[in-house]
Amino acid sequence: MISDMLKTLREKRKLTRQQVADSIGIKKRALETYEYGDSLPSIETIKKFADFYNVTTDYLLEREPLPDPLELIKNIASSSDIAVPVELYMNLPESARQSIIDCMIELSKVAENNPTEKQTLCDIADGLTKKNEII
Q: Cβ of 86: how many Cβ atoms within 10 Å?
């Protein structure tokens, strides 16, 4: 049901009802009635939800599955230098993907604190490794 879909999408993004309502221009109470299944949104409101959540109206109405993020990226990427690393990343187990995200966060922190023109991610990673060896 659309009520379940709206609630699931909102909760996945860790948004409040007020945030969603404000973003698409409806009242919080209206969103509550949609999520509880007490009323159905208009076609225009369904379109607003689809745009806001970056899904299709058919997905909201449970007529099609959510598109595969990897396929979306492949379609958007104009060159394989973007698509290939993303495909490799998406094929990793969740724990490995989380480790990569954690590493990227740490690398960005180091890069922010030590901005140099010639510094590469490898240099930053070496610095992190040395820092961890000392500790």
A: 16
Instruction: Tell me the one-letter amino acid at 10.
Output: R
Question: Per-residue pLDDT tens for 109-131?
Answer: 777 776 665 566 666 666 666 65
pTM: 0.50
DSSP string, 42-58: -HHHHHHHHHHHT--HH
Tell me how many domains the chain contains: 2
Domain boundaries, position 106: 71-134
Looking at every residue in the chain, the average pLDDT score rounds to 80
Is the same domain home to 47 and 9? yes
DSSP class of residue 128 equals H
User: What would the two tokens of residue 83 be?
Assistant: 């698509």
Q: Domain boundary residue among 21, 41, 60?
A: 60
